[in-house]
Every structure is written in C-alpha cells, then in structure tokens.
C-alpha cells in the first residue's frame, strides 16, 4: 500500500485545485479538476486507501498506547502522552493530536477523526460522478468499504468520548459556523449500526486476489458490530441490565462465527504466529505495513519492542501486575509465596509467547534484565533504552527478523480476530445465563492456548471470561475499554509495578526478586472518557464537555 500513500499527496492537489511542477510535468495545469478525479476509479481508490490509513489505528495508536494507560504496560518514552492521562492531568487544553506520523501526539484524535470523516463524506458526495460514466459496478465495493470505515471512525469517537455529533455533510471553506450538538451514546451506536448495515449489504466474504487482502470484508463489518454491541450491553452503558442488549451482542458475535470462514490459528507453541503470519485463518481484518519505506513507529515494531541489549528501544514495558496475572501451567493462579523462588517457571504457554523476561531465550541468548545485565538499566548498551519494569513485549515480535540489518520490516496489526469474537460471544452468553455455551467458546480459546478448561457458572464464569480477555487479548488495545465498560476503570490507574532482579551467584544463574513501584499514578473520575479539546468547543458552543472536566 505504500506507493498508494505516496500518490495521495498528488491526489489532494488535484481535488483542491492546486498544482506543482511535478504535476505540470505530467499534464497541462488546467487538465486536473475535481470532476476528473471523481470520474477515475483508480484515483478514487487512492483516496479510499488514505481513509484506511487514517482510520485503522495500529500498534502504539491501536494497542500499546492504550495498554500504557492500564495495568498492562508502562510507556518508556511517553510517545502518545500516556502519562498525561495516568497522572490525572488531562484537560481540554492539552489535547493536541496530529495524525498519522507525529508520535508525540495524544490519543484523543477528536479533530483528526472528524477530518477523516470529512473524507468519507466527500467520497459519498462525489462518487456518483463515476457512477454516471459507467463505473458503478467497479465502485460498488468501495462504497461498502467507506461505509465500514465511517462506522469505524465513529466507533473510535464513541469509545473515547461517548455520544458525538453525527456529521454526514461536507463542510467547505464557506462554512464558518458550527452548531451541531452531541448525539447520545445510543444514538451514536445506532448511527454506526446503520453504516455497518450499509457495508454488510455490499462487502464480499473474501477477496480472490491477494492484492485486495487488507480491504474490508463482510466479516470485518460484522466483527465491528460484535464489538460495538458488546460494549453497549456492558454495565457502564446498560445500567438496567437490559437482556435484549446482551442478546443482540450474542447474535452479532455468532453471525461472525457462522460465516464459517475463520478458524483459530496456531497452538500452544505457535501462538505468536497469529500476528506474524499475515492474513492467516484467524485474522478477520488487519493492517499490514511493508518494508519498502520506513513508517516510523509502525514498521519499526520489532526494534521498538525489543530490549536495549539487542539494540532495541524497549518502548513499552510490561507491568509486574500483568506478569502476575498469567496463570501457572496447571491453571492455578501465580503467587509469590508459592512460586516466588522461580517466578518464570511452569507458567501457562501464552506467558512465554507474550512476555520477554529475565532468562527467556531470545535471538540467540537469554534476556538479561537482572542488575548489571545486558538488558538492564545499568547495561553498557544504550541504558536509556532499557526496560524500567524488567520486562518487554514479546507478543507480535518476529524473532527471526534482524532489525540491526534494517530497522523497518513488514509487520501486521490485527484489528479483529476470531479469538476476540469467541470471547465476545462467551461474555454475552454468560450474561444471558447460557453457561454451557459460554464455557464452550471460552474453553476453545483455552484449549488452543494449552491451558486447562474452566468449569464455572454465574459470577465466577463472568470473572473467568474477564480474566481470559486480559490474557488472550493483552496489548491489543482492549483492556483500556474493557475495564471502562465493566465499570472498574480505576484499577488501571494503580501504581505501575516492576521487578528488581539481583544476581546471587557469580555466574548470574540464581536471583532474588523484589517488586518495586516504577510509576506513581493518579485516578480521577473524569477518566472514563477523554476530554473534548477546548478549541472544538470554542468553535461550536453547542458541544457539551464530558463530565468532570473544566
């Protein structure tokens, strides 16, 4: 997709009527008009691909930045200004955002998401020009894609802010007043559902040509519907525990399952290939970055996540409380009293796939997070890039790739996968009292992971499903929103913990362990939602700020 991104800057020039020497060299200046662009399906596809780029968030924007605002991760360099939020310092005045490549931005994205929505609205306003010159069939799939992408953008807004203004018109330079009010949470949900319905009426189940992989499909639209309706059924947004909402969530998840085109990928020993095998059987929708041109913080993933002793950046460090929540191999919970002598032995398989810990084999040697080790804060190798918690992320890292030869590489961000859908379905069925169905799908996930089955009912089953989401979906951007929809967001603001590992033998083969606080955090009630940037409210006084923000 990279060459499409490069071309997009030219397309913007065409649409807006500007020209440059490079364009003039291609054709006479006056030959490029907006009408010409919207009558050319190839140029329209370039435009649609830019919408993909802006609306499908990945890695730091889609997962790690969110995890760093919870009990999953510590952000070593505050690339997304995560500390602003976890220190309780977010205000309407410090919510700048710049997408896509300013990695010092916040994750607010109010302004940039509406900018992307403007592009989707522009598409629907103008795509009829191509229809009128005989390209209707060719453009039909693009319409389904853009309905999906507009739904995705509004879902990103709904997650961050609750109900938002529902804009479908195209604003021009002549529009200098804005009076749109915020829709309610349910109204925004219903608008997204309408967009999803329009997408599902058009999008295919699969694409025959590999060049189309990465485009939205029927499964992608239905997966978005599943996540949306699960959120809407959850306690924070379903205060009366309306059973019909849980039934809608169950039905939406089952619709994805019943497509019968996805299956769980890998096993207990090949679990990480879910993320490194592109477009595998479990992937419903993903964004793949190629290795042709560097896209900082996106296709430098393997370098950014790896420890300093390997010349990596340790950009996101796993918190001790996340490490402790991985069970033992027999399904019992970890405890320092019972397992503290060798805390990394006999853990469940996903622990070894997801976490890089002291002694773990990685790229030809054991990781050395102990004091004085190559990957420690006292290392001679870039100690400023050392993990502050004593752990880094192993999940999603292709260990066969040598980022010391070339720092950027092809990599895949999985936006929707079948494992999540199984857990969505299990959670909804458990809420409906259908324990056997919930257990069936919960234990499918556990069987693939190589861990013992769960047998529980009632609140114990709900707790087991929530625990499974914490482990199975870690670092994928779910935890931040899960603990909010469950009404327990404050647990993500407990102080961030790490581990201090001290050698007790000359050969550095035995150690003592001490849990330490590496980051003090502050919980504030406002943090269920992000603040709307003040500049947006100044432009449109009809916008009402989220609760507890001045």
TrEMBL record:
<dbReference type="InterPro" id="IPR011990">
    <property type="entry name" value="TPR-like_helical_dom_sf"/>
</dbReference>
<dbReference type="InterPro" id="IPR012944">
    <property type="entry name" value="SusD_RagB_dom"/>
</dbReference>
<dbReference type="InterPro" id="IPR033985">
    <property type="entry name" value="SusD-like_N"/>
</dbReference>
<feature type="domain" description="SusD-like N-terminal">
    <location>
        <begin position="103"/>
        <end position="230"/>
    </location>
</feature>
<feature type="domain" description="RagB/SusD">
    <location>
        <begin position="282"/>
        <end position="549"/>
    </location>
</feature>
<dbReference type="Pfam" id="PF14322">
    <property type="entry name" value="SusD-like_3"/>
</dbReference>
<protein>
    <submittedName>
        <fullName>RagB/SusD family nutrient uptake outer membrane protein</fullName>
    </submittedName>
</protein>
<keyword id="KW-0732">Signal</keyword>
<keyword id="KW-0998">Cell outer membrane</keyword>
<comment type="similarity">
    <text>Belongs to the SusD family.</text>
</comment>
<keyword id="KW-0472">Membrane</keyword>
<dbReference type="Pfam" id="PF07980">
    <property type="entry name" value="SusD_RagB"/>
</dbReference>
């Amino acid at each position: 997709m990279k060459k499409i991104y490069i071309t997009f800057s030219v397309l913007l020039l065409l649409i807006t009527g500007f020209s440059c020497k490079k364009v003039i060299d291609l054709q006479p200046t006056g030959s490029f008009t907006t009408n010409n662009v919207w009558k050319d399906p190839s140029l329209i596809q370039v435009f649609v691909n830019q919408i993909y780029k802006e609306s499908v968030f990945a890695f730091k924007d889609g997962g790690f930045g969110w995890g760093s605002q919870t009990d999953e991760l510590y952000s070593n360099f505050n690339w997304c200004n995560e500390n602003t939020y976890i220190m309780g310092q977010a205000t309407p005045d410090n919510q700048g955002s710049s997408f896509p490549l300013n990695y010092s931005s916040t994750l607010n994205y109010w302004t940039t998401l509406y900018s992307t929505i403007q592009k989707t609205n522009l598409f629907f306003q103008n795509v009829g020009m191509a229809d009128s010159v005989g390209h209707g069939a060719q453009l039909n799939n693009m319409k389904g894609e853009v309905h999906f992408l507009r739904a995705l953008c509004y879902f990103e807004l709904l997650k961050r802010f609750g109900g938002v203004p529902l804009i479908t018109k195209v604003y021009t330079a002549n529009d200098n007043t804005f009076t749109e009010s915020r829709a309610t949470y349910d109204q925004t949900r219903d608008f997204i559902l309408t967009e999803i319905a329009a997408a599902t009426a058009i999008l295919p189940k699969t694409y025959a040509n590999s060049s189309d992989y990465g485009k939205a499909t029927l499964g992608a639209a239905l997966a978005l519907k599943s996540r949306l309706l699960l959120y809407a059924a959850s306690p924070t947004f379903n205060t009366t525990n309306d059973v019909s909402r849980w039934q809608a969530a169950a039905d939406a998840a089952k619709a994805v399952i019943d497509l019968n085109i996805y299956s769980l990928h890998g096993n207990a020993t090949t679990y990480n290939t879910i993320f490194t095998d592109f477009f595998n059987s479990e992937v419903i929708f993903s964004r793949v970055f190629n290795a042709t041109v560097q896209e900082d913080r996106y296709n430098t993933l393997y370098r950014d996540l790896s420890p300093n002793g390997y010349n990596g950046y340790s950009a996101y460090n796993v918190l001790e409380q996340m490490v402790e929540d991985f069970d033992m191999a027999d399904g019992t919970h970890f405890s320092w009293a019972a397992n503290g002598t060798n805390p990394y032995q006999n853990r469940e398989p996903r622990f070894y796939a997801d976490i890089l810990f002291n002694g773990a084999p990685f790229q030809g040697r054991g990781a050395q997070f102990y004091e004085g080790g190559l990957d420690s804060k006292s290392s001679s190798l870039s100690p400023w890039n050392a993990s502050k918690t004593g752990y880094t992320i192993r999940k999603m890292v292709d260990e066969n790739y040598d980022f010391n030869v070339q720092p950027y590489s092809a990599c895949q961000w999985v936006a929707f996968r079948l494992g999540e859908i199984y857990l969505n379905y299990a959670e909804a069925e458990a809420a409906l009292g259908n324990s056997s169905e919930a257990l069936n799908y919960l234990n499918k996930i556990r069987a693939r992971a190589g861990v013992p089955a769960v047998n529980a009912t009632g609140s114990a089953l709900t707790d087991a499903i929530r625990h499974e989401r914490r482990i199975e979906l870690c670092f994928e951007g779910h935890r931040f929103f899960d603990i909010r929809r469950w009404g327990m967001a404050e647990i993500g603001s407990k102080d961030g913990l790490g581990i201090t590992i001290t050698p007790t033998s000359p050969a550095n083969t035995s150690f003592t362990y001490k849990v330490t606080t590496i980051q003090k955090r502050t919980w504030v009630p406002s943090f269920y939602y992000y603040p709307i940037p003040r500049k947006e409210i100044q432009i449109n006084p009809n916008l009402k700020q989220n609760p507890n923000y001045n």
